[in-house]
Design a protein that fits this description.
The radius of gyration is 27 Å and the shape is elongated. It is of the alpha/beta class. The protein has a 9-stranded mixed beta sheet, with helices on both faces. It has helices spanning 51-60, 75-86, 128-141, 162-172, 199-206, 217-228, 265-278, 283-297, 308-317, 330-342, 359-369, 382-389, 398-406, 423-429, 465-475, and strands at residues 10-15, 17-30, 37-50, 64-72, 94-97, 103-110, 113-120, 147-151, 177-180, 194-195, 232-236, 242-245, 249-252, 327-328, 347-352, 374-380, 413-417, 433-437, 453-457. Helix 1 (51-60) packs across helix 7 (265-278) and helix 8 crosses helix 9 (308-317).
């Protein structure tokens, strides 16, 4: 069940910043000069990549982000700073080295297929002076941050000398460090809270082959945990989700519907884990959230982000999602409905006590759903039911009633309201269609002034909670 509003978070990102540059186009011919494809470019776009993509994802989650790194004194570096500023990120801790080249990866994509990538970058370790400046920056920011994320792309910022000092500094102040690692020597990450290599990276770092059907996965995970003295190790498994290694190994499956581009998915996982853990969630909840965020991102082209609204909509779209993920607060449903309307979804609203769920309820809800794309159901709280129907009602408590409704195929979201009428809830939803039973014909319908239209559905005679209760009493 959704919690109340998430407290504001401040997360520090340290790592290799870069620009992901995309040239999109169509290909219908071969060059007469050489046996290569000719791509007619129709769109060009640059987005933040590497640690910058981690920053971008955190901003999409509504997080305050500080970033530390080293960039070159070139056009790509200036462009990167501008992009950061456009996101509202403070760039005062970015160090400029005129001798370095800012990393820029250019990809040519034709008909959703990456044709070629060319990189312009520097992979030399940063100077000792810059290492010390980053340490000073981190020390200055640590008291105000909730989490530290290290995004290592082996471009020279997170050096073997710098990372252990960062770990000592962060652990000394009780700040958890999450790492997206690179390379084969993971000794420098010793003391991190968790690391997130993919299966190939984990195999190289532990010298343990993946094996057929991930037969060595458990050995790899616990070897990483011991090697780096971690609280948790997480190995990402692409379309197979991820595996968490704590006291035991736990597999978390994924449900990506379509995969267009896996670029930046690891950045999204790191950002999502950091956001969720800093919000007070446990590791399993954080991993499920990160999986969902990654599933949203791989359904987009290019380095991308996933907003909280997109993740909530994705999770709710899963047929087997836990029913309590469909139970929302007033603020939660208002945010989700806003996103759904931006996607041109038609929102339907109805409400009731739903004390003992019966065939009449099911038929009415199925009919209501037929009027649009998304059905939101308001449910009277226990206190509200007692005021309306007497002290002997409800039979079933509010959470039970909400959960049963949320489990129905026709119902997308359920919101419990404590008022005598659903008017305040209708104001949050502002539905395209408000649905009531045909017994409300020629009666005033609460919230009708806020809805696009009102629909009445026929009730099934003889099917009501009161009749069910009376029947039980008669049998006694």
């Amino acid at each position: 069940m959704e919690t109340a509003t998430t407290p504001p978070l401040h997360i520090l990102v340290v790592g290799d910043l870069m620009i992901d540059h995309y040239l999109w186009g169509e290909c219908s011919r071969i060059s007469p000069e050489a046996p290569v494809q000719v791509v007619d470019v129709t769109e060009e776009r640059a987005v933040l990549g590497g640690a910058g993509n981690v920053v971008n994802n955190l901003v999409a989650f509504g997080v305050k982000v500080s970033v530390a790194g080293v960039i070159g004194g070139d056009e790509a570096g200036r462009q990167l700073v501008t992009m950061m500023c456009d996101l509202g990120v403070n760039t005062q801790h970015l160090l400029l080295d005129p001798r370095r080249k800012t990393s820029k990866k250019s990809r040519v994509v034709a008909s959703h297929q990456q044709v070629v990538r060319f990189d312009s970058e520097c992979r030399v370790d940063i100077s000792t002076e810059h290492e010390q400046q980053i340490l000073q920056t981190v020390e200055q920011l640590l008291p105000s941050v909730d989490m530290v994320l290290l995004s290592d792309y082996a471009k020279g910022v997170l050096t073997p000398a710098l990372v252990p000092q960062l770990m000592t500094l962060c652990n000394g102040q009780g700040k958890r460090v999450l790492v997206d690692p690179k390379g084969t020597d993971y000794a420098k990450y010793r003391g991190a809270y968790l690391i997130t290599p993919n299966r190939k990276e984990a195999a190289l770092a532990t010298a343990i082959p993946v094996g057929r059907e991930d037969e060595n996965l458990e050995s790899m995970g616990f070897a990483l945990k011991r090697l780096c003295d971690l609280t948790y190790a997480i190995i990402t498994l692409s379309e197979d989700g991820m595996a968490i290694f704590g006291e035991t190994m736990q597999r978390i499956s994924t449900h990506a519907k379509e995969v267009y581009d896996v670029t930046g998915a690891g950045d999204t996982v790191l950002a999502a884990l950091g956001f969720s853990l800093a919000s007070g969630k446990d590791i399993e909840t954080a991993a499920h959230f990160a999986n969902s965020a990654a599933a949203v991102v791989v359904g987009k082209l290019g380095s991308a982000t996933a907003t909280l609204d997109e993740i909530e909509e994705y999770e709710s779209s899963l047929h087997k999602a836990a029913s309590d993920t469909h139970i929302k607060t007033f603020d939660g449903i208002q945010r989700i409905v806003g996103y759904l309307k931006s996607q041109d979804k038609r929102i339907v609203f109805t409400n009731g006590c739903f004390d003992i769920l019966h065939l009449g309820h099911i038929k009415s809800l199925e009919k209501a759903k037929s009027f649009g794309d998304v059905l939101v159901v308001g449910v009277n709280s226990d206190a509200s039911v007692r005021r309306l129907k007497g002290d002997d009602r409800p039979i079933n408590p509010e959470y039970d009633r909400a959960y049963l409704l949320a489990a129905l195929e026709a119902v997308d979201y359920v919101v419990i309201f404590d008022q005598d009428t659903p008017y305040e809830l209708v104001k949050r939803v502002m539905p395209d269609v408000l649905v009531k039973g045909s017994d409300y014909r020629d009666k005033e319908i609460v919230g009708s002034d806020l809805a696009g239209e009102v629909k009445l559905v026929d009730i099934i005679l003889g099917k009501s909670t009161t009749r069910v209760i009376d029947g039980i009493k008669e049998e006694r």
